[in-house]
Specification:
about 170 residues, mainly beta
């Protein structure tokens, strides 16, 4: 049940029921309300608000893995991001994408909710094969020379990493 709000109209106080779904321009200026699931109805969103992007995987990319965009014969493709071979993360997938298949990618600056085993409040960094590390690479360790140190974001739950588009450093 949607809570009603009070408003003044022509000198009178009236009750108004906010809308839980939008019919488009005719609902401009109306007050929105959360639905029974506690979320705004998708009809209230800007159609451009979906941050997903179509990707073509050059190799299999598992759910929750981070990908790197690259040009392959003039075609933009996605492959596993990897701190050991100059492949910084540009985004991630929530569902697995097979090699040479189309899939849906999500850019950094969104939530990767296809992970497991994260520790709330811990910052995570790019690992190998699209994975994550709970600690940054040690710049003083000679074994890390030439690797990418890229912070990806902070865990808000055991399965959700709030990513940000941080710059990376080549050690």
């Amino acid at each position: 049940m949607v809570d009603k709000v009070l408003y003044r109209n022509a000198g009178e106080t009236k009750q108004y029921t906010p809308i839980t779904a939008s019919a488009g321009a005719g609902d401009a200026g109306k007050i929105p309300a959360l639905g029974s699931d506690g979320k705004l109805d998708p009809s209230m969103y800007d159609p451009g608000a979906d941050p997903s992007e179509p990707i073509t995987a050059s190799e299999a990319i598992g759910a929750g893995k981070f990908y790197n965009r690259f040009a392959d014969g003039g075609v933009l493709k996605a492959r596993l991001a990897d701190n050991s071979n100059a492949r910084p993360a540009h985004g991630f997938v929530r569902e697995s994408v097979a090699a040479d298949a189309e899939g849906t990618g999500y850019p950094l600056d969104s939530v990767n909710d296809a992970l497991t085993g994260l520790t709330v409040g811990t910052n995570y960094y790019l690992g190998t094969a699209g994975g994550v590390l709970a600690a940054p690479l040690d710049a003083t360790d000679a074994a890390n020379t030439g690797k990418i140190d890229q912070k990806l974001g902070m865990a808000k739950s055991a399965t959700e990493l709030v990513t940000d588009d941080y710059d990376y450093v080549v050690l």
